[in-house]
């Protein structure tokens, strides 16, 4: 309970410090803010360009998604499947034309045609990987973009997500060499590429999309409801209210804490952001579609099937490196993303090594000897090896070039030196680093306690 109280107290204190910092440092942050659209006299942090573009694009998204939801329900109930599939594919293409532009669709069509054709005739997925990764790396230079920020944002996302979808479909062709690229498969491919919500914001494997759409048509043919018994009108109302609440909560939050501006300001040093204690859980659950893609299309195929322990470990390492190389290509080949990827890979390696230790007979006997309480303390202490790198990985990922480097050197490197030389005094690097260690230890204890108390172990959970 002591660790829980310390963690809660520090979380509240961190909010208070952030609010004070946002006010005191406003003279340096004001170029990242603009007058609030909600409350006169207040400023709002607009430095996060992705959030700014998203909120400006929201009205267009809502119109397209609502129109899609209404017409989708009408089409699947009025038309037979053969005609309905064609109408849906055409409708979704026109909807994407509204969300993006004809130049965007035509340019993406070149990628689709080139990668799919080569893969279909060679039945080798390596060509689609090469073509699509080059496309992802060079999309910001080669691809045509609209001049309006809202469409630019949607087109940029469409290029990236479509490249992943093309890879997914090409892998499907390689795994199913008996499949003929007939009219039916072409229509389903078009549906997969242009389905509005999955073509801009989410990643889904082609097989999953096909299975879900097949299930929808089967339920319609049997005149069954598309949703389970627990889903009714109020279910959708509650979901909508939750989305609206979190949107405006974030907007309100950015009025009081200029969190993105603080990251973007070279005059400010922040500490106190903490990732989940088990880093592999974050990778698994923060974006399930991306996780499924990386696991099924990259990691598992490269792992292969061998009983040789040495070869298995080498393949596991190579598969992990390949996953992070794709993530690096996705986000961009910049030094701050490279350091973030390296720290993330380091955390996963440390976590895997720690998991291996817990399976040994030596650890089992040792944990029985020292008791459950001391085992928890040692585990929480060892988890600092993943939590601390995760904190600095956040700075590299969220901050522009140079910010993560500065914080990494001033807090971690100098902090370790200060702690070893006992040069720990208020507000110096050693003090900050020691504070992170203590707070991280309490955080880890809280995570372990919650897992044991509520039986929450994500290693046993199935990702839907």
Automatic annotation (TrEMBL):
Check the UniProt entry and state the signal peptide residues, or none: 1-23
Cellular component, GO annotation: endoplasmic reticulum; membrane
Which keywords fit this entry according to its UniProt record? Membrane, Signal, Transmembrane, Transmembrane helix
The UniProt transmembrane annotation reads: 58-79, 86-114, 126-144, 156-174, 186-206, 243-263, 310-330, 337-358, 378-398, 432-450
Which superkingdom heads the taxonomic lineage of this protein's source?
Eukaryota
Q: How does it sit in the membrane?
A: Multi-pass membrane protein
Places the protein is found: Membrane
- Specify where it is mainly localized: membrane
Q: Which GO terms describe its molecular function?
A: palmitoyltransferase activity
Read off the InterPro entries from this record. MB_O-acyltransferase (IPR051085), MBOAT_fam (IPR004299)
| Pfam families on file | MBOAT
Q: Which family does it belong to?
A: Belongs to the membrane-bound acyltransferase family. HHAT subfamily.
Q: What is the recorded name of this protein? A: Protein-cysteine N-palmitoyltransferase Rasp
Tell me the classification of the organism that encodes this protein.
Eukaryota, Metazoa, Ecdysozoa, Nematoda, Chromadorea
């Amino acid at each position: 309970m002591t660790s829980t109280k310390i963690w809660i107290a520090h979380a509240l204190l961190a909010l208070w410090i952030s609010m004070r910092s946002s006010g005191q440092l406003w003279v340096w942050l004001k170029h990242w803010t603009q007058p609030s659209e909600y409350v006169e006299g207040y400023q709002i942090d607009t430095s996060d360009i992705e959030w700014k573009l998203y909120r400006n694009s929201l009205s267009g998204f809502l119109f397209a998604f609502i129109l899609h939801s209404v017409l989708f329900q009408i089409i699947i109930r009025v038309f037979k499947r053969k005609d309905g599939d064609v109408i849906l594919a055409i409708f979704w293409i026109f909807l994407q034309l509204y969300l993006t532009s004809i130049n965007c669709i035509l340019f993406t069509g070149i990628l689709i045609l080139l990668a799919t054709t080569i893969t279909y005739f060679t039945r080798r997925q390596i060509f689609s990987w090469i073509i699509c990764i080059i496309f992802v790396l060079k999309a910001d230079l080669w691809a045509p973009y609209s001049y309006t920020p809202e469409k630019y944002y949607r087109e940029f996302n469409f290029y990236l997500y479509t490249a992943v979808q093309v890879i997914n479909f090409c892998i499907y062709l390689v795994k199913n060499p008996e499949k003929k690229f007939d009219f039916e498969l072409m229509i389903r491919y078009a549906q997969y590429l242009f389905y509005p919500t999955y073509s801009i914001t989410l990643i889904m494997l082609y097989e999953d999309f096909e299975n879900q759409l097949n299930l929808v048509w089967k339920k319609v043919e049997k005149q069954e409801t598309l949703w389970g018994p627990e889903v009714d009108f109020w279910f959708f109302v509650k979901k909508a209210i939750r989305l609206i609440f979190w949107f405006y909560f974030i907007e309100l939050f950015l009025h009081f804490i200029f969190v993105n501006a603080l990251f973007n300001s070279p005059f400010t040093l922040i500490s106190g952001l903490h990732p989940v204690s088990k880093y592999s859980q974050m990778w698994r659950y923060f974006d399930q579609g991306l996780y499924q893609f990386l696991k099924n299309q990259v990691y598992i195929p490269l792992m292969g099937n061998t009983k040789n322990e040495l070869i298995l470990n080498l393949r596991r390492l190579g598969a992990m490196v390949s996953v992070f190389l794709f993530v690096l290509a996705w986000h961009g080949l910049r030094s701050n993303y490279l350091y973030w990827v390296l720290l993330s890979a380091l955390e996963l390696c440390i976590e895997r090594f720690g998991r291996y230790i817990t399976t040994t007979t030596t650890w089992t006997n040792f944990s029985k000897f020292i008791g459950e309480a001391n085992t928890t303390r040692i585990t929480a202490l060892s988890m600092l090896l993943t939590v601390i790198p995760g904190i600095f990985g956040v700075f590299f990922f969220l901050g522009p070039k140079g910010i993560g480097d500065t914080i990494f050197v001033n807090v971690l490197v100098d902090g370790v030196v200060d702690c070893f030389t006992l040069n720990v005094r208020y507000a110096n690097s050693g003090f900050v680093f020691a504070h992170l260690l203590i707070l991280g230890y309490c955080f880890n204890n809280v995570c372990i306690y919650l897992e044991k108390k509520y039986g929450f172990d994500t290693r046993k959970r199935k990702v839907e």
